[in-house]
Amino acid sequence: MNANLSARALSSLVRPVAVVLIATALSGLGCKPVLDDLDPREGPPGTVVEIKGGNLLLATVRWNANTPSEQTLPSDFLGARFFTVPSEAEPGQYPVQLHGDGEYSDNKIDFEVTDGVVRPVPRLDDVTVVAFDIDPGGKASMVLMAHGANIDVGAQIIIDGTAVMSFFSRLLRNGAMNASDPSTLGYPIFHYATTWTFIQNQVPDSDISVAVKNLDGATSNTLTYHIAASMDELDSDGDGLLDVWEKDGYDSDGDGGVDVDLPALGAEPWRKDLFVEVDWMEDCEPDGSIWADIEATFEKAPILNADGSQGIAIHLDVGDSPGDEGGETIGFSCAIREDDEPPDFDSSADCVNFQRLKDEHFNKHRLKVYRYCIFAYQSGYGTGKSSGKAEGLVANDFFISLHSWGSEGRIPEFQVGTFLHELGHTLGLRHGGSDDVLSKDNYNSIMQYGNDASETYYISSWPPCSPGQLGGIDADCDLSNIDNVFTYSQGQRRELNERELDESEGMCDKTPVDWDMDEEIETSVRVNLDADADKTVIQDFPDWANIELNFRVAGSEWNEN
């Protein structure tokens, strides 16, 4: 791999990423930099600091400025907007100053290095590209962007084992750090970030390995990135929607006309999009307030896009906008399955086939774009008490069946949690994170079921006492109550050894948990916390880092539809 680009290639690749930065900073070129503030002004080694000021283009950050131990710290592309506190810095005050055009900024600001958790190794969550091109010689060039947790300013991207020149470009502080003492977490996430590099001379339709190495040498996990075989197969943001669809619209039948106008629907090729159409049976219309909550969950997701935005844009077709095809009331009040079998609980009861309803009420031109959901009367599986079912892991169909729960099924929080839970299965998420073991207290996700005595949520046992589908995640380290925050896990909680649990430590922040329910807080107890009969070590799982938006990679289980 050659990371050195010609001037022409460099110009064409830099433009989409740097034009805004350059345009806003050009007025300061050749001027003394101005340092107004540091955000934050204190923190442990590894803290990423944002610089507030002016004339930052081509400026550098000087740590311990104007002292014998002054350091020039790595910053972002073509300027000084961020820096990482050196990992070797001892507690104390360190003057920070900017330098540019041969001069120091007039003022300096002291940064207070505190004791605390040194940042853990970086975690690579996603790889996307912009400015992808295939030259006449058949070789691909691109700006490759690595997104993930705890990435340093100055971190290097490693491609096929070789570290390349890389540039920090985006910071997202983690607002869901739900422990005031990060040392009580297994993998505290202080921030998410994007770093990027130029690469060329790549072979289309081939794989490269990508990792990130921080300033201290700590290296992330490795992801495999598949280089598009052609411009027509390019999916820059990795959301399963090809760039040509998101730019020009999707022609599903190949007749030259646009059948799904994705640009008009708000799709963007450099930001992740997720499309879901929703219908419902008679008397099963969901509460109208839930859609804004579901949209907010994805908008707040700890995911960074190439266009600088945060989260996933979920497009819910529920009949509330002009041109919507969803939001239709379909004429059944019975159980639902994905086959023609009667419901498990009563062989004489009526049951409708999900796919027959989809054939009648879903536009086939949307099959490669939209997931499809039905709010149904009752599940045809088990006792009929199930709250929903997904087609499978990484899939395009699911249903919600809360009607048989009576008035509780009308609770908006139930509907939000169940919708996100079943949708999560179609995004590839399991009940136990990396497995299907239920009721893990430290798997802080709506994908689990909780730890009530029956191992399954029923109204009689609600509210639950651990994270799960109906109660939401634990947002404050206190398992004694629910928090009604509905989202997927970031994978921060520490592991729990069921053979030796310290109840005084609890889940985080040393909030005690009486796991053996003997009304005493003990430092060593043996308790089976999950639904697995064996006492093992159970772990959290980073859901958001592992979702799969492209359901087409898995085909379809329900009648190839």
Write the layout of secondary structure elements.
Blueprint: H1 7-25, E1 34-39, E2 42-43, E3 48-54, E4 60-63, E5 71-73, E6 82-84, E7 92-100, E8 103-104, E9 109-113, E10 123-134, E11 140-149, E12 156-159, E13 162-164, E14 167-173, E15 191-202, E16 207-213, E17 223-226, H2 243-248, E18 273-281, H3 290-299, E19 313-317, E20 329-330, E21 335-337, E22 351-353, H4 354-361, E23 370-375, E24 378-379, E25 388-390, E26 397-400, H5 412-426, E27 496-497, E28 537-538
Parallel strand pairs: 2-9, 18-19, 18-20, 18-23, 21-22, 21-24, 23-26
Antiparallel strand pairs: 1-3, 3-6, 4-5, 4-7, 7-8, 7-9, 10-11, 11-15, 12-13, 12-16, 14-15, 16-17, 25-26, 27-28
Helix pairs in contact: 3-5
What's the number of extended β-strand segments?
Answer: 28
- Report the helical percentage: 10-25%
Q: Kindly name the structural category.
A: alpha/beta
Distance between the first and last residues' Cα: 41 Å
Radius of gyration: 26 Å
Characterize the largest beta sheet: strand count, sense, and whether it forms a barrel.
6 strands, mixed
Quaternary organisation: single chain
Uncertain spans, ≥5 residues at pLDDT below 50? 1-28, 452-464
